[in-house]
Amino acid sequence: MKNNKVCSIIFDLGGVLIDWNPDYVFLDVFKGNVHKMNWFYKNICTVNWNENQDAGYPISRATEEKVIEFPEYEKLIRMYYDRWDEMLKDPIPGTLDILKKLVLSKKYKIYALTNWSSETFPKALKKFEFLKWFDGIIVSGEEKTRKPYRKIYEITINRFNLEPNKTLFIDDNISNIEAAKKLFINSIHFKSPKQLIKDLKNMSIL
């Protein structure tokens, strides 16, 4: 697919540019037992629970409510945010190289749209110098909503005066991609830096 009209590119952060994964803590905690770890994610500290904090729910309140619900797992529940820094690793090198090329080309406005708690995002800003490269960043926790809800895409479009059909969105979550497409935003489902390079070349962006 050729596309010579893209003027703005929006990157997701976690899973695309930044390696964040609770496995870095809990795989060790569960002594390598992936089955037990996944059971914990599915039943106690679930994806939906974490995403609620990404949408602006206070971490302390979420933690206390979860402890009341599952008191026998208190230590593990508190560990989720107490050891959050250990879940935040390095930039994903291949994607970072792509971002750098796009920024240096000065052909596009470059933005980030991330599902991230407003309480923990300052740690990312301190850790990753490349976050200063963006022309703007939308953090879900600051907006009190998150992907894939329509509202956060509309906030992004309006705040940066974007034209959806001249905007490209890159995200590793297919639900987020499908939501963007409903607003006529060009989208790439990120799977690897190598695949992203291929897709960007097909769109005559790289």
Which strands sit side by side, in order, in the main sheet?
A: 5-4-1-6-7
Helix content: 40-55%
Annotation field: number of helices: 12
Could you say how many structural domains there are in total? 2
- The chain-level structural class is alpha/beta
Rg over alpha carbons: 18 Å
Number of strands: 7
Helix-strand string: EEHHHHHHEHEHEHHEHEH
Task: Report strand %.
Answer: 5-15%
What is the level-2 CATH architecture name of the largest domain? Answer: 3-Layer(aba) Sandwich
Instruction: State the oligomer.
Output: single chain
Overall average residue pLDDT = 96
CATH topology category name of the largest domain:
Rossmann fold
Query: At the first level of CATH, what is the class of the largest domain?
Result: Alpha Beta
- Give the full name of the CATH homologous superfamily of the largest domain: HAD superfamily/HAD-like
Task: List unreliable stretches of 5+ residues.
Answer: none
Shape: globular
Largest sheet: 5 strands, parallel
Structural summary, described in words:
The protein is of the alpha/beta class. It is 50% helix and 15% strand. The strands form 2 sheets. The protein has a 5-stranded parallel sheet. A two-stranded antiparallel sheet has the order 2-3. It is globular and about 55 Å long. The protein starts with 7 loop residues before the first strand and ends with a helix.
Write a compact overview of the structure shown.
The protein is built from twelve helices and seven strands.
